[in-house]
Automatic annotation (TrEMBL):
Residues 237-271 form the FPG-type domain. The keyword Iron does not apply. Its cofactor is Zn(2+). GO terms for biological process: base-excision repair. It catalyses: Hydrolysis of DNA containing ring-opened 7-methylguanine residues, releasing 2,6-diamino-4-hydroxy-5-(N-methyl)formamidopyrimidine. This is Putative formamidopyrimidine-DNA glycosylase. Residues 2-94 form the Formamidopyrimidine-DNA glycosylase catalytic domain. Keywords: DNA damage, DNA repair, DNA-binding, Glycosidase, Hydrolase, Lyase, Metal-binding, Multifunctional enzyme, Zinc, Zinc-finger. Belongs to the FPG family. GO terms for molecular function: 8-oxo-7,8-dihydroguanine DNA N-glycosylase activity; damaged DNA binding; DNA-(apurinic or apyrimidinic site) endonuclease activity; lyase activity; zinc ion binding. PROSITE patterns: FPG_CAT, ZF_FPG_2.
Length: 286
């Protein structure tokens, strides 16, 4: 799933490439992807792209004086920028992975796509981004929150730190991948309880969050959209590296699997050398 650094990079790429150009056509191939009906897609024709930014993991493309295309790419969604399209013909509904296509006046534009059969990509045409339910519920941005506010928001929760970090209502922008990286950098177990964190642990976690997210943004911004996924994978130290050596200590990176996702960690760096119980594997061994 694209997280804060990748969405920030996509916004930066659109600011460089698309802002200032006019929408020629806004085409919807997957009607389930567009969650709004007013303004209608036809309302953006001949309007300029005026801005590109984000709200947590939501991409926000400003169109004309008062319309926003707000997109949550979900687990398998992506933005593909085209310098030119192969065919001028309109998209056919249900034609492959393309959910929405935005054609611009210079022949370029971008596709919003989603791989797989589980369709979760969500796009909204709204006059105010706060009209999007997910945006309205967001906590402060992970790169904008102060250390004291960070501490207050964590201590207001009662749960395992991995889940709290990835709750968008607590902090906006952090997902499964970068929470693994932040916890590794902070040398903290993903199952540590927020209510038991000391002031020093919270400070270490805050500094790790700032370092990991800022570094990822710096590596991502300036990359073409097609290169961002590879850049993300290359920068990971534990996430999606199960069975490989930890770059910090050399221990083997371990995994805990859940129904629809997994987390990765280093026992030596994060859990005092003790592997965490993998409930899925434990059931298979019975």
């Amino acid at each position: 799933m694209p997280e804060l650094p990748e969405v920030e990079a996509l916004a930066a790429y659109l600011r460089e490439r698309a802002v200032g150009h006019t929408v020629d056509r806004f085409e919807v191939a997957s009607f389930s992807a567009l969650k709004t009906y007013d303004p209608a897609p036809s309302a953006v024709k001949d309007l300029p792209i005026t801005s590109a930014g984000r709200h947590g993991k939501f991409l926000d493309v400003g169109i004309g004086p008062e319309i926003h295309l707000v997109v949550h790419l979900a687990r398998a969604g992506w933005l593909h920028y085209r310098d030119s399209f192969k065919s001028p013909a309109p998209l056919k509904p249900g034609s492959g992975p393309i959910a929405i296509r935005v054609r611009l006046d210079d022949g370029s534009g971008f596709d919003l796509t989603e791989a797989g059969t589980q369709k979760s990509l969500a796009a909204y045409l709204v006059r105010d981004p706060s009209e999007v339910p997910g945006v309205a519920r967001l906590g402060p941005d992970a790169l904008a929150v102060s250390r004291d506010e960070f501490a207050d928001r964590l201590r207001a929760q009662n749960g395992q730190i991995k889940g709290v970090l990835t709750s968008q209502e607590v902090l906006a922008g952090i997902g499964n991948a970068y929470s693994d990286e932040i916890l590794h950098a902070a040398k903290m177990s993903p199952f540590a309880l927020t209510g038991k964190l000391t002031d020093d642990q919270i400070t270490s976690l805050y500094e790790a969050m700032r370092e990991v997210e800022t570094d990822a943004v710096e590596r991502s911004v300036g990359q073409k959209a097609a290169e961002l996924k590879g850049e993300k994978r290359a920068g990971m130290r534990v996430h999606a590296r199960t069975g490989l050596p930890c770059p910090a200590c050399g221990d083997t990176v371990r995994e805990v699997s859940f129904a629809d996702k997994s987390l990765q960690y280093c026992p030596t760096c994060q859990t005092g050398g003790k592997p965490l119980a993998d409930r899925r594997m434990s059931k298979l061994m019975r």
